[in-house]
């Protein structure tokens, strides 16, 4: 059996972690994988997370099973933050805990496949390299449409809308809720409104990947576009990750919400999600969700979490301002949101920066802005400038 298997390259993005770690040069810079780092280069456990963990340690009296829905109170408390109060209370929407945002996307993919395996999933390019494999693994067809105009460093909205004209009614459209990965460039407010109308008019189903809420412009602002879409369409899905905004990466905590076209359909949708979750992971891991629940149950912890998240967001924005001011070709970075920006450089330059300066990023030229600090940003810019045009 196993003799039939072919070799597989390691995930190119995750491989950067090991490559950077193995580099002995003291001045090396990691702007690879998307994790928030503070000014010292650490990815700390957030204060509210530490406090919640201390409480859990003192009070948790069982590790017995929950169920395929995970910690339902976690999902219910997170819903108003992700969906807003009105949608969180909407009887058409049902949600379950998942192992991270990837688990949420995979559960969404399986749900689509069970409902109708002929539906294609449309993905704007470029995107997170794991998006297409997740949908393909569920047996779905992935189609792509242009999203980004790299020459102008802006969303190519006309091309994106033109791409939607190729989709059949009932197909799924993947949207990044905020902090687009890898470009940092999202839809403008008026574009979200046009998009919502167009998606509804064509009978398409939006699947919003919301993995960086609070790291762009703020918790409310980062979900505002998605709310416009959810309010404008009958059916939708939201795949949510707490990896970045609660800094819970390895705990694997996320959620999937599905909006049915009428309240009576929410229960069958939910039952199918639970059956699928049972065969995928039986039950999601508890600890991360218990932490988020504990934070959101306690106003003082919630407020401390929000404050620290706002500080993290501010640090990213100030680094963006420094990069944007360094060279005209980098100016768009100051206007973008979230952890990522796509540098206007090719693979050769990426390789040269790695070989000559110990600067690590994927071949796409995507950088994790939070991988820089006040000291390294100057060295980073000095290494990059000779490779920029204009
Ligand atoms: C990234 O894009 O760097 C992050 O989302 C981490 C990952 O899982 O790829």
TrEMBL record:
Enzyme class: transferase
UniProt record, GO biological process: L-phenylalanine biosynthetic process from chorismate via phenylpyruvate
Alphabetical UniProt keywords: Aminotransferase, Pyridoxal phosphate, Transferase
Taxonomic superkingdom: Bacteria
GO cellular component, one term: cytosol
The Aminotransferase class I/classII large domain, residue ranges: 27-384
Reported cofactor(s): pyridoxal 5'-phosphate
EC number: 2.6.1.57
Pfam families xrefs: Aminotran_1_2 (PF00155)
GO molecular function: identical protein binding; L-aspartate:2-oxoglutarate aminotransferase activity; L-tyrosine-2-oxoglutarate transaminase activity; pyridoxal phosphate binding
InterPro entries: Aminotransferase_I/II_large, Asp_trans, PyrdxlP-dep_Trfase, PyrdxlP-dep_Trfase_major, PyrdxlP-dep_Trfase_small
Subunit and partners: Homodimer.
PANTHER family: ASPARTATE AMINOTRANSFERASE, ASPARTATE AMINOTRANSFERASE, MITOCHONDRIAL
Homology family: Belongs to the class-I pyridoxal-phosphate-dependent aminotransferase family.
Protein name per its UniProtKB record: Aromatic-amino-acid transaminase
Organism, scientific name: Sphingomonas abaci
């Amino acid at each position: 059996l196993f003799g039939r298997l072919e070799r597989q390259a390691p995930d190119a993005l995750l491989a950067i972690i090991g490559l950077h770690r193995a580099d002995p040069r003291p001045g090396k810079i990691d702007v690879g994988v998307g994790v928030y780092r503070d000014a010292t280069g650490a990815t700390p456990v957030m204060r509210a997370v530490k406090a919640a963990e201390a409480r859990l340690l003192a009070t948790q009296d069982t590790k017995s099973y929950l169920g395929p829905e995970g910690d339902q109170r976690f999902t219910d408390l997170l819903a108003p933050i992700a969906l807003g109060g009105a949608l969180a209370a909407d009887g058409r929407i049902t949600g379950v805990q998942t192992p991270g945002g990837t688990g949420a996307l995979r559960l969404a993919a399986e749900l689509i496949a069970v409902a109708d395996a002929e539906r294609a999933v449309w993905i704007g390019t470029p995107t997170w390299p794991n998006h297409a494999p997740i949908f393909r693994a569920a047996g779905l067809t992935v189609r792509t449409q242009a999203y980004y105009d790299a020459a102008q460093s802006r969303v190519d909205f006309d091309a994106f809308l033109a791409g939607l004209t190729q989709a059949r009614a009932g197909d799924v459209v993947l949207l990044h809720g905020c902090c687009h990965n890898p470009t940092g460039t999202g839809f403008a407010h008026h574009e979200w409104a046009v998009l919502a109308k167009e998606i509804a008019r064509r009978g398409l189903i939006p699947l919003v990947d919301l993995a960086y809420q609070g790291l762009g412009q703020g918790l409310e602002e980062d979900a505002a576009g998605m709310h416009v879409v959810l309010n404008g369409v009958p059916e939708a899905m939201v795949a949510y990750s707490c990896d970045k905004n609660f800094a819970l990466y390895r705990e694997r905590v996320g959620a999937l919400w599905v909006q049915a076209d009428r309240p009576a359909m929410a229960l069958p949708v939910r039952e199918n999600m639970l059956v699928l979750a049972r065969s995928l992971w039986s039950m999601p891991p508890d600890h991360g969700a218990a932490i988020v629940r504990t934070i959101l149950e306690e106003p003082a912890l919630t407020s401390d979490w929000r404050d620290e998240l706002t500080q993290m967001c501010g640090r990213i924005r100030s680094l963006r301002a420094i990069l944007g001011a360094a060279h005209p070709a980098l100016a768009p970075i100051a206007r973008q949101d979230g952890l990522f920006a796509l540098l206007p450089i090719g693979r050769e330059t990426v390789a040269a920066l790695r070989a000559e300066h110990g600067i690590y990023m994927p071949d796409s030229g995507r950088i994790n802005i939070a991988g820089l600090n006040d000291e390294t940003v100057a060295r980073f810019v000095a290494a990059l400038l000779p490779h920029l045009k204009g």
